[in-house]
Amino acid sequence: MSRDRIAAVVLLVFGLGGVLEACRLTIGDAGHPGPGFFPFWLAVGLSVVAVALLLARRPAGPPAVVVPGTRVRRDRVVLTLVASTLYAFALQPLGFVLSTILFLLVMLSAIEPRRWTSTIAIATATSAACHLLFKVWLDVQLPAGPWGF
Amino acid sequence: MDLALPAIGYGFSIGLQPLNVLACFVGVFVGTLIGVLPGIGPVATMSILFPVTYAMTPTASIIMMAGIYYGAMYGGSTTSILANIPGEAASVVTCLDGYQMARQGLAGPALGIAAFGSFIAGTASVLGIMLLGPPLAAFALRFGPPEIFALLMLGFTMVTYLAGASKLKAVAMALVGLLLATVGLDPMTATPRFTYGTITLMDGVGLVPIIMGLFGIAEVLLNIERGVHQEIFNAPIQGLLPNRAQWRASAGPIARGSVLGFVLGILPGIGSIIPTFLSYALEKRIARHPERFGHGAIEGVAGPESANNAATGGSMIPLLTLGIPPNVVMAVLLGAFLVHGIQPGPLLVKEHPEIFWGVIASMYIGNVMLLVLNLPLIGIWVQLLKVPYRVLFPLILLFCIIGVYTVSTNVWDIVIMLAFGAVGYLMKKFDYEPMPLVLAYVLGRLAEESIRQTLLVSRGSAAIFLERPIAAAFLGTAAAVVVLPIVLPRVRTTIGKLATIKES
Q: pLDDT-based confidence at B2, cuts 50/70/90?
């Protein structure tokens, strides 16, 4: 299945799901539109467009541009998303400073590993600087861990 | 005009208040900074600073947000000229001749003419807003729900038809955006929709997580996957002031770029990138020696750099007078208005003159600041380009996460942002553009309210759109946007055939 088809199927699932969900709300009619009226017709429209995309016979597009000498590192994308999600949930239990240090350690060593000493130094300094900038200076709400920072 | 003059004086009295000057300064400074740095654009930055504006007055926060946008346009040119990397998408064209000039030892004049061109164009577009804004707002006062809905339809049509390669994909994205906007409490009956009992979704999917995900996070993901090369032009920069011959060569391109950028900027869906390409193409076409382009022609820097700054000003018009953002940056700006409980639109000039005229005056002040600040500071910006990406990208990621968290102190908003980051990354891979989605999301509520009110008034009859001349005109224009590109080539070939028949 081509990439375009996959995307169209995803949109179709989204559209049909939207139609089903909108049906659980009051749709009403054109003269008395209810809460479900707008979402219902949008989802119907999306499903129709998705089917059109699915059926559209388009010439195979130009292949993805790959710059010679560079390697596409998809593992880094997945790692970044996983690390960021874990960071989000670590914020409140661990507090801002500690969780940020851990997060930056992972990210810095994932993108381009350097010596551990410099990585730890950058992570700690950045975390402390953000704490000062956002919490102390700008008075922004950041979660504190059990030890107060 | 007789009204505009005292009004702009009033605007300056607002814009020159110390706090507003400070906001303007912070805006243009941060804007230049992120304009210089590749990989992070004005949209992501404005979103990150969103929470900071809560504590400011509405005027100061809009001044700062606008400053980030046009500041980024200034900064983007520096990176293009010195590093051959567009610091900003709108500066892609500047790389062509700007970097060549730098290689020939003309980095100074290239940077200088980019700054002066931006200043002149920025100033001209402020004048344009001043003259066009109020009459347009007065006209828009006659709009009821049918007119608003018809205008939105025109906007959506323009966005999808100008957006990019596949119009069908753009329509799909717009529909997804409109659907996303329906999440949360129904605006008319307060029935919860698609919330699944969660509190996070009660107020709808947040604008900030969506925008930062689709633009900030997705951009970081795309960049760390590739491993970008850093290469900076490392020669001393001398003589920022262009000489007389360079000025003479640039005067025309700056003037044409300003007009082109301003007019195109007003149209929905254009943004500040397309005008730069058109300006470059225009200058190349009318140049006496077009072969010089691509080898360091100063016209190729002056025109596009003026065009992108003028477009910035032009795009403020639909937002300030109609309440309809023509591009994503203006959508974020609209968000900043809404956070302070102000709905920009035809009533803005009357109800909040301090914002309308204050922001316009501040844009002029900001342009002066940028010119005065940037030329001496170029050395510092060059140093900034040396921040290694392996540090820069984790930092951008961190700022996005902190930014979203501080808006709502809700961890789930970070998760929503990351999800949209993944979606934005995949959209890029599958050739879907985020622009129609975000615009549709921002305008979704207004679209739903206006269509439902229209239908209630007309008792379900769509004929109301044809009975009201302004609404009919908008829908007619939308139809023309769809039909003309299909019909025009055929008309042209038919005329061509007829001509050949006549000749033979």
A: very low
